[in-house]
Amino acid sequence: MEAIQSWVSDHKLTSIGAVWASAIGASLAYTKTRTPLKPSLRLIHARMHAQAITLVVLSGAAAYHYYEKSGSYKQEKNAS
C-alpha cells in the first residue's frame, strides 16, 4: 500500500487523469446497458459524471496535501 501511495504522490496528475478516463469508460458502459440514449447524450452524461468524480478526487487530494503538510509542520515545530 505504501508503494501505491508513493507512486500516486509522485504522479498526481497522471493519477487524476486515470481516474477521469476510468470514470468516462465506466459511465459509458453503464449507460449503454441501462438506458436507450443516443451516443451523443451518453457521451455528455459520461463527461458530466467524470467531471464530478474528478472534482471529488481533486478535493480529496487537496485535503490530503493540506493535512500532510500541516502534520509535517507540527512534527518540525515539536522537534525544535
Automatic annotation (TrEMBL):
- TM regions (residue ranges): 12-30, 50-67
Q: Which terms in the GO cellular component ontology are assigned?
A: mitochondrion
The answer on whether this UniProt entry bears the keyword Cell inner membrane reads: no
Coiled-coil regions, chain positions: none
Q: Short name of one Pfam family for this protein?
A: HIG_1_N
What biological-process terms (Gene Ontology) are attached?
mitochondrial respiratory chain complex IV assembly
Which PROSITE patterns does the record match to this protein? HIG1
Annotated ranges, domain HIG1: 1-76
**Localisation:** Mitochondrion
The entry's keywords: Membrane, Transmembrane, Transmembrane helix
Gene3D superfamilies of this UniProt entry?
6.10.140.1320
Q: What InterPro entries would the database entry show?
A: Hypoxia_induced_domain, Rcf2
Please report the name of this protein according to its UniProt entry. HIG1 domain-containing protein
Q: Which organism is it from?
A: Citrus x changshan-huyou
